[in-house]
Amino acid sequence: MGRAPNVEGLNLEVAGVQCDPKKGVRVNDHLRTTNPRIYAAGDVCMALKFTHAADAAARIVIENALFFGRKRLSRLTIPWCTYTDPEVAHVGLYEQEARERGVPVRTFIKPLQEVDRAVVDGQEEGFVKIHVRRGTDRILGATLVAAHAGEMIGEVILAMVNGTGLRALSKAVHPYPTQAEALRQVGDAYQGSRLTPGLKRLLGLWFAVSRGG
C-alpha cells in the first residue's frame, strides 16, 4: 500500500511549504523547508523512516533552528536492523553501491559458525561482513546477520563515526566468549591481509635466523 505523509489540514501551501504526496515535505540537507522559518524532521520528510533516524534528525533541527547550527542530514551514519531470527543489521554502503560510485572496496567476512559463543548458543547461522576502502582499513559499510546483530553493529558504527578502522577493532580486547568477538576476528583478518609475500619471506628468514641463534 505504501505510505503517505500525514499533512492534511496543515495548510502547508499557505505557509509556503512545498510537499510531495508521496515523498513528503521538501527539505534541504539542513532539514529546512521551502519556508526558511520552518523545519521538518522524521517520516514526513525523510527517506529512512526509522525511529532512531527521526530522533537524530530532530536533534539536527533543534541545533539548526534554535542555535544557528549548520548540521547536515547527509553526514549522519544511520544504521537499520530487521528483527527477524537471526537479525539483519546494516550500515553504510553495500559492496555493489561502492563499485557503482567508483570506490574500490575489499570485503572481510566471518561466519558465525567459526565464533565459539555462537556455536555454544546454537546460533551459528549468520555472518559478519565488513567492507573497507581498498588499500586502507577505513570502514565503508557492514552487514551483520546474527541473533544479536542490532547490538553488535553499534561497535562498527562507532568506528565509522570516529574515523577508526578495522585495525582498531582488532586491537580492542573483547570478553570471551561473546558473539561480538566476531568483529575483532574480522579485524584480525584485515591485519593478516597486510602480510605481503615479500614481508612473509622476510619474517620467515628472521625466524630461521632466530632459531639458528
Description:
This protein is α+β, with helices and mostly antiparallel strands and 213 residues long. The protein folds into two domains: 64 residues, 3-Layer(bba) Sandwich (FAD/NAD(P)-binding domain), CATH 3.50.50; 114 residues, FAD/NAD-linked reductase, C-terminal dimerisation domain (Enolase-like, domain 1, 2-Layer Sandwich). Helices cover 38% and strands 16% of the residues. The protein is built from eight helices and seven strands; from the N terminus they run αββαββαβαββαααα. A hairpin with a 5-residue loop joins strand 6 and strand 7.
CATH topology of the largest domain: Enolase-like, domain 1
Strand order of the biggest β-sheet: 3-4-7-6-5
Order of helical and strand elements: HEEHEEHEHEEHHHH
Name the shape in a single word.
elongated
CATH superfamily of the largest domain: FAD/NAD-linked reductase, C-terminal dimerisation domain
User: Ends: how far apart?
Assistant: 75 Å
**Helix residue percentage:** 25-40%
Number of helices: 8
Q: Look at the structure and give the CATH class of the largest domain.
A: Alpha Beta
Question: What's the β-strand tally?
Answer: 7
Uncertain segments: none
Structural class based on helices, strands and sheet pairing: alpha+beta
Mean pLDDT: 92
Estimate the strand proportion: 15-25%
- CATH architecture term of the largest domain: 2-Layer Sandwich
**What integer value in Å does the Rg equal?**
23 Å
Main β-sheet: number of strands, strand sense, barrel status? 5 strands, antiparallel
The number of distinct structural domains comes to: 2
